[in-house]
Write a structure and sequence with these properties.
Radius of gyration: 21 Å
CATH architecture of the largest domain: 3-Layer(aba) Sandwich
Number of domains: 2
Shape: globular
Strand content: 15-25%
CATH topology of the largest domain: Rossmann fold
CATH class of the largest domain: Alpha Beta
CATH superfamily of the largest domain: P-loop containing nucleotide triphosphate hydrolases
Strand order of the largest sheet: 2-3-1-6-7
Number of strands: 11
Largest sheet: 5 strands, parallel
Low-confidence stretches: 67-72
Structural class: alpha/beta
């Protein structure tokens, strides 16, 4: 059975991700107490039963904690999660753990827009709730198979991201690579496995005719790729990735996010992300490109 477990910070988009999976055929269960996971998997695994399910998506998050006044929250059922997931894998099920994250500023803005109270807030502020929740979920984030930074995503962006990843029947178990461009001025992506700073390259922003365009345009891309230092950087980066990708695959890693950043995330990083993805695809890799800040 295919099992996708969605977890992450409150306000990061878990409900949106769950609905996206439900729309592509997953049986969706929200806010499942971890103590019920074994029973649920056993029920859905009964091949001769009307309850048999081939694909299930679950949300398990910090709502399983127990609040404490003025001192944060106790971990509740969170310490039980790693062993529960290990049992699912030992039973032979295909399990993906997806951790949704976002920058503190993005989470605070979302709570401000909805006027909801953070469930783990200590002093009534969203910031204290976010800090408390990050601490509690740190072990789960570390153990996750895929991390998605939703800071710059709309609901539609996240829905498309989730469905692009999981709506692939009979997909090969290759390393799924995402190359993300971003701007350092907006914070670093929280889902990056590898991060590269290309602010040393000449900046098209200071060329008046190129400033309004982005790295997706041929004019900006040609400008960025024309410099000798760009070619040296790309050759060294691709040489590093040629070594690293098989190592990650040998360790059983299913997803890899490569983040490339410049100052604003509109010119250099965008052009380089596209070029890196193109070269990896030419070598047969499964690659997607995402531009976090290109429209800012």
């Amino acid at each position: 059975m295919r099992v996708v477990l969605i977890t992450g910070l409150s306000g990061s988009g878990k409900s949106t991700a769950l609905r996206a999976l439900e729309d592509i055929g997953f049986y969706a269960v929200d806010n499942l107490p971890i103590r019920l996971l074994d029973d649920l998997i056993a029920l859905f695994s009964e091949s001769d039963s009307l309850n048999a399910v081939e694909k299930v998506a679950l949300v398990i998050d910090a709502r399983t904690t127990r609040p404490r006044s003025n001192s944060g929250s106790s971990p509740g059922e969170i310490p039980l999660i790693p062993e529960a997931l290990a049992r699912v894998r030992r039973a032979g099920h295909e399990l993906d753990v997806v951790f949704l994250d976002a920058l503190d500023e993005a989470l605070e803005r979302r709570y401000s827009e909805t006027r909801r109270r953070h469930p783990l807030s200590i002093d009534g502020t969203v910031r204290s709730g976010v800090v408390n929740e990050r601490r509690l979920l740190a072990p789960i984030k570390e153990a996750s198979d895929r991390r998605i930074d939703t800071s710059g995503m709309s609901v539609h962006d996240l829905r498309r991201e989730i469905q692009d990843v999981f709506d692939q029947e009979g997909r090969a178990h290759d390393l799924a690579i995402t190359v993300t461009s971003f701007g350092f001025k907006y914070g670093v992506p929280t889902d990056a496995d590898l991060m590269f700073d290309v602010r040393f390259l000449p900046n098209p922003y200071f060329v008046e005719s190129l400033r309004p365009s982005t790295g997706e345009s041929s004019d900006v891309s040609d400008y960025v790729l024309a410099h000798p230092e760009t070619h040296v950087f790309l050759d060294k980066l691709l040489d590093l990735l040629t070594f690293l990708l098989p190592q990650y695959q040998n360790e059983g890693k299913a997803y890899l996010t490569i983040a490339i950043g410049c100052t604003g995330g509109r010119h250099r990083s965008v052009a380089l992300a596209i070029e890196v993805a193109r070269r990896l695809q030419a070598d047969g890799a499964s690659v997607r490109v995402r531009h976090r800040d290109v429209n800012r």
